[in-house]
C-alpha cells in the first residue's frame, strides 16, 4: 500500500524557500494527485522568519541540523546555498538515510562527486533540477527526455544577470557599469557581482550539464571562464551591424580530441532563437544525434519558478517512495543521479582553450593610411586565417585613426592569439586588439 504522507524538512526560508513552502501549500491537492501521496512540510530550519510565508502551523527550528536529525522527516530540501554549512547539512541528511533535494549549483558542481557517492552508500537520492536554469527542466531533459541521444554539444544562457546586462547594452546602448548598477538595484545582481558577471555562476551550471551530457565527473576547475565586465557598448553595436548579438554563453562540446568546456561572451547570428532570449531569461540549446537541435527557454531564477523545479524533484521522490512501498521495496528502478550508471562515468580529456576552434570577432584601431589593411591581412594569411567580413569605419573629424572590425572563419585559438600579437605590434595599430569568439550554433 502506498505511503499516505511524505514529510518534508525545509532548510532555508529565503526567496526560494518561501516559494517552495507557498507552492506546496497552495497546490497541495494537485501535488498529492500527481505524487500519489500527501506531501507536507512538517519541519523548517531557518535563522529567521520570512513574512512572505505563513509558517505558524509548522515546527520551526533555528538550528537547521535539527531538521536533518528529525526521525520523522523523509526528504530534506536544502536551500541555504554555499559549500560549507550546506555540504555538512546534506552529508548529515544522507548519512541519516534521508533523500535530499537541493537548488545549490555550487554544492553540486564543487562537491557533487563526493555527495553522490555518500548518497549511493546510504541507498538514498540527491535531486537537483533547480540547480541549473531555475524553472527550466533541463536536468530532466538531459537525463530522461534525451536518453536515446549521443549529445554532441550544448550551449546555454545560464545566468540571468549577465543576460539582462547584455540585453540592455544591446537594446538601449547603455554602458556595462550603468546597467550593472540598475541590476543591483533591481535585485538581479549581488552587491559583489563577481559570480554573475565573471562567469563563475555559469561555470558551476555548465559543469553539471556537461557531466549529464558526456558521462564525465564534475570538474569545475577545468572550465575556461571569461566574464562580460570588459565588454564595450561599441562592440555590441558593431556586432549588431554585422548581423550578430552578443550573449554570455556556457558551451560544452564533445570532439574527437576532447571535451570543450568554456564560458565567455559570444557572437551568435541574430536569427538564432537563443540569440533572442532577452532580459533575465535563461535558455539552453542541446544538439543530439537523433533529435537534432532542441531549445529549452524560461525563467532562470526567482522564488516560484525555482520552487517549481524543486517541487518537481519532490514529486519524483514521492512517486519513488510510493512505488517502493507498494512492491515492498523490490524491483524499483530510479533514474541515475548523473544520467548514467556510476561505472559509466569516466575521466575525459578537456581541451585547453588554446586548442579550441572558433571563429572570431576582432576590433582594432589603425592609422588611416594606405597599406595598413594589407599588412594586417598578410599576417592572417601567413597564419592560415581567412576573413569572412571586414568593415573599416570612417575616421572621426580630426582623428588620424579608424576602427577596423573583422569576422574571421574558424581557427584554433592559439593561432589567433599569435596573429593578434603580431598585429598589435605593428606601428600603425594603436592600443588593444579586442577579440570575442563567434559561434554559429547551427
Describe this entry's structure for a reader.
Helices cover 36% and strands 25% of the residues. With 442 residues, the protein is α/β, with parallel strands linked by helices. α5 (105-121) links the parallel β5 (99-102) and β6 (126-127). The mean pLDDT is 94.
**Average pLDDT rating:** 94
CATH classification, class level of the largest domain: Alpha Beta
CATH H-tier superfamily of the largest domain: NAD(P)-binding Rossmann-like Domain
Number of helices: 14
CATH topology of the largest domain: Rossmann fold
Q: What is the helical fraction, as a range of percent?
A: 25-40%
- The assigned structural class equals alpha/beta
Domain count, please report it: 3
| CATH A-level architecture of the largest domain | 3-Layer(aba) Sandwich
How many E-type strands? 17
What is the overall shape?
A: elongated
**Strand content range:** 25-35%
Taking all Cα atoms into account, the compactness measure Rg is: 25 Å
The low-pLDDT segments are: none
Largest sheet: 11 strands, mixed
CA-CA gap between termini: 51 Å
